[in-house]
Amino acid sequence: MKRLSTEMLTFTEIGGAGEMIYKAVRFPDYYWEFDHEIKEDVIVPVFSYTKRPTAGTDYSLTGLELLANLCNLYRKINNPDSSANITELVWDWCRNNIHPYYIDDLCDIIESADFKNPNIYERLRGDASFLVSKFVHDLSNLGSTFEYYDVLNKVYLEHDASAGRKLYYEGRIRESIPLLEKYKQYTDDDEYIKQISAKYDSLMKGVITLFPAVKMNLKQNNRTKKIEMGAEVHSVFDIAWYSFVRMVATVAPPPDTNPDYMFSQSSILTCMACGDFFVRHSSRQRYCNNPDCQAERNNRKARAYYKRKKEYNPKLSGEKRSLL
Ligand SMILES: [Zn+2]
What we know:
Layout: E1 3-5, H1 11-15, E2 19-21, E3 23-26, E4 29-35, E5 40-46, E6 54-57, H2 63-78, H3 86-96, H4 103-112, H5 119-128, E7 130-131, H6 132-158, H7 161-165, H8 189-198, H9 200-208, E8 216-220, E9 227-231, H10 236-250, H11 261-265, E10 268-270, E11 277-279, H12 291-312, H13 314-317
Parallel strand pairs: 1-2
Antiparallel strand pairs: 3-6, 4-5, 5-7, 8-9, 10-11
Zinc ion binds at residues 271, 273-274, 276, 287-288, 290, 293.
């Protein structure tokens, strides 16, 4: 898919084809602490004169990849069986991805900052620090909406009833969206799929009401000085939501159900080995890039190959060829 790099997300970028690439801010490291005044965990960036933050267009992470990454983090955090510390999971995400908040503002500060001036350190640290609770709140809005959208398509397009049934759970930070709850009464899988498919359009209408409005405003492009209509980008959640908007708007399924459609069109798939979301880079890809999953894929391919070989070559299977 074509990659678009942009300083500003205009109507063209949000409504158009290709994958969005936006500016990113990276700090060398972070720590987290409990703020006794507000009684909440805060994540604070760590940087110095020699290890400075960077800002600018980041080609390593597209909007869709951000969306998939954040939705995987949401599942990890919301997993009712997990006892992992939520603050540490968020901290870890920031260390391995990009800075989540105040992207436009921080880019402006970092691009023009004089790191010889000692005042810049405290200012930047103060401006870039954020509450874990805010991150988790934004994450759960995005993650639960994506989860519901994904499940609805799995039931409708792939006829996967178990994906739908797995949606009813009480997570650590929130419950799943209860829009499929009333279909629980259909214990027969075929009937369950039939009932949900019959209501697919109105259920999908319910999904899109969960999307936040895209806020557009006049902005001056720093590089070209041109004034353009651009979307407000404050956080990685804004970028992820815009990518999600594009995905839903451009990948709207055809009126007749076609089980191959999801695989041929959808840009974010579920890995067949680990179950994580990943961005599809080729039409046949079914596994994420994790080396364990790639190994699993190769194993399964080898087993399938051996099985086929056995079927064609009776000697290998130990059967006597009766016609000889
Ligand atoms: Zn995987």
